[in-house]
Amino acid sequence: MILLLQAFLLFAPTQPDAVFFQINPAQVEFSSYCGEDAISIPGGSSPFSDGEPSLPGVNYSMVIPQGTSLDNVEVEVHSTFDFPNRFNIIPVLSIPLSYPVPAIRPHSTTYLTDVFPGSWICEISNGNKTGFRIASFSFVPFKLNPLTGTLSLVTSATLSPVLVSNSDAPMLSLSITQTEKAVSALESVVSNPEMLLSCSPLTTSSTDGAPWVVIADIALLPTLQPLVDHREATHGSAFRSTQWIYENYDGFDSQEQIRNFLKDAYENQGLIYALIVGDYGETTRISSLCIGENVMDSVSDLYFSDLDGSWDLDGDNLYGELTDGIDWYSDIYVGRFSTDVPNRLENMVEKTIAYETSSPEGDWQTTALLAGAGLWVDDPPGYWGSFVCDSIDSRLPESWTVHKLYEDYTSHPYNQIDLLNEGVSYSTLNGHGNEGGVYWFDFPPTGIVTSANYYDLSNSGMPTVFHSMACHPGHLQNVACIAERLMIWPDGGGIAVMFNSHWGIGTPPNFGPSEWLELYFAEVLLEDEQYEIGVAHAISKDEFKANVSISMQNWILQENNLLGDPALRFVTGQTGIEETEGSPSIIAPVISAPIPNPANGTCVVNFTMPVAGTATIAVFDLSGRMAATLHDGILSEGEGSLSFDASTLPSGCYSLVVNSATGSASTQMLVLR
Questions:
Q1: DSSP codes, 8-74
Q2: Nearest one of 352, 377, 424 to 569, comparing CA atoms
């Protein structure tokens, strides 16, 4: 079936709708920073490398049909505007948060040319998210003459994506539950969610694995068993020992053996979530990502979440490099309990179960703490963590209580531990950092949450979900970095911690990649209400990858790891013990590929309804438009079939979709005439 789909995609319409771009010149903002001109537009980011002019672009992302890739974007310019002034545009500069801004920024040789950029379209990319094909591109509506400083703006244009057939694009057959989970995730990521059903992967109605799995040394099973039992009730669960994985799966090292198991379970057994138990060592993949002169050399659990390819395309046994064919999208949702010590692990297990089953009522559930330190303050107006905090605040529900703790040129608040102890469900810490904690820029006491004050936390029963842009607080190679300390602290601390294993990166005076990820996590969790923490963490990365092009972006995607159970449900989204996440694969309808397939006349469509009720069965083309209706009304419980005359449709690939009150399912149909 996969080969047939690839062969006959040529018969189907494969081009997504064109995009109309429009901007008013008044929306372009100019400011002065370090003696040069900075430029920004709403939602814009610069896709260029360090040293090149920091002109912002606008990103577009879309789901595209199986077996295709975005090859080009045709630009038809309708109108332009010439700015009357002359500009010395500041170059892109990605800076670790602990490094000072240089007095003179490095400028590339581009500044010696008379036109930049050379193309309106930058950063075309293609990737796979749980069987879906995702394409994105950046449109830069500016033309700069660096020699003269003249600048023009495209104020309106039509952008037409051009797709090509790609036989190398992976085409999987996944469970209904996996597909439904991915659709829910991608609705906020792509600009054409109406095409998700028609572009979905093939579905299989049965799997022999659990949606949630925990991986640990066999000796830790007794400690983990209460969580395994809890997840059996909420999702469907399994335990897999590292010993069993090493005996049954090959790989260059233990990390690759674990990943090969996860890949098999994802592709063939319906896996959605993986909790990996283990401190720095045989279960942690060290990334060799190198960007410029920066080498990561720290833990990247995205290796276990993004399951396309081997993460070692160049075959040098160094993983995570730009030459390793990574697409950066998550396929499953991964978290980690970073310990091998039974009593610490027991504490995390107990905290996780209690959080979902017996969290106390109260205002703490809708309280946030936003800490913003000075990031680069030497040259007024300076650049502050409060900038991203204010953007996050705009994503928080209006009914929430928000504590804003901001540093300025003279002082900073120091009551953050007291506020956490009173009860805070979500906190973002935007300051400087190291393995020991997250810090203010200056003025003692310097710690925000550090190894010197975390033991004053007494928020037992009200643990916090933490996120941070700081450097190194999630550096698992350290004996006990602050991320781990917050997780193992028995008197409260954190219930989920998403910290960086290496440098946080900024691009002052504009939003840097670390800030974008902070913002997207808050948006996905609290606006889109993706309440499972591991899902929100992964989707925020997916959305960041799809909708922003910026230097050092891939660095941030690799280094920001989740400590905690990926299936953990955020407290404001809880209703007690949640309905079984795996239940859609049991109660949802099932539809099979028509017989015959390909079809050129009458074919038979078989389906199974778990309960009697109203349902529709329809045919959709690759643009997401309904091409035919097979049934619209009551269907009886059990197996059934319908006849359909496929000769009424043009040749091409279609989706057969059944929708009912208990769920939906889809399959692919090929029509040849």
A1: HGGGS--PPPPEEEE--GGG-EEEEETTEEEEE-TT-B--SPTTSB---BEEEEEEE-TTEEEEEEE
A2: 352
Is the preceding peptide bond at 445 cis, omega within 30 degrees of 0? yes
Nearest to 302 by CA among 276, 327, 328: 328
* 504 vs 513: CA distance, rounded Å: 8
Q: Which residue has the tokens 């009912």?
A: 660
Q: Compute how many other C-beta atoms are within 10 angstroms of the C-beta atom of residue 463.
A: 29
The closest of 471, 379, 514 to 102, measured between CA atoms, is: 379
**Residue 241 — left, alpha, or beta (φ > 0 → left; ψ -120 to 50 → alpha)?**
beta
Fold of the CATH domain 358-573: Rossmann fold (3.40.50)
Decide if pLDDT at 1 tops 50.
no
Whether residue 185 has pLDDT greater than 70: yes
CA distances from 226 to 84, 220, 433 (A): 68, 11, 35
196 secondary structure, DSSP code:
T
Task: Considering the chain, tell me which residue range(s) the CATH 3.40.50.1460 domain(s) occupy.
Answer: 358-573
Angle at CA 225, nearest 5°, toward 221 and 226? 150
CB count in 10 Å sphere of residue 576: 8
Q: Which residue has the tokens 């989707």?
A: 539
Instruction: Label residue 632 by pLDDT band (50, 70, 90).
Output: confident
- In the structure, how many helices (H) and strands (E) does the chain have? 14, 39
Question: Domain spanning 2-171: which CATH class is it, in words?
Answer: mainly beta
**Which pLDDT band, with edges at 50, 70 and 90, does 2 fall under?**
very low
CB atoms within 10 A of CB 634: 10
Question: How much of the chain exceeds pLDDT 90, in percent?
Answer: 75
Three-state DSSP class for residue 596? coil
- Cα torsion through 184, 189, 194, 200, rounded to 10: -60
Cβ atoms 23, 41 nearer than 8 A = yes
3-state secondary structure 400-447: CEEEEEECCCCCCCCCHHHHHHHCCCEEEEECEEECCEEECCCCCCCE
Give span(s): CATH 2.60.40.3800, the chain.
Answer: 2-171
In this structure, of 1-10, 24-33, 186-195, 233-242, the range with the lowest mean pLDDT score is 1-10
Tell me which residue of 127, 135, 150, 128 sits closest to 53, measured CA to CA: 150
Whole-number CA gyration radius for the chain: 26
Predicted confidence (pLDDT) at residue 650 exceeds the cutoff of 50: yes
The pLDDT-based confidence of 209 (bands split at 50, 70, 90) is confident
Q: What is the DSSP letter of 390?
A: H
Stated as kind and residue range, the H or E segment containing 534 is helix 533-547
What is d(CA 536, CA 517) in angstroms, rounded to the nearest whole number? 11
Phi and psi at residue 465, in whole multiples of 5°? Answer: -90, 115
Per-residue b or e along 356-385, where b marks 16 or more CB atoms closer than 10 Å to that residue's CB: beebeeeebbbbbbbbbbbbbbeeeebbbb
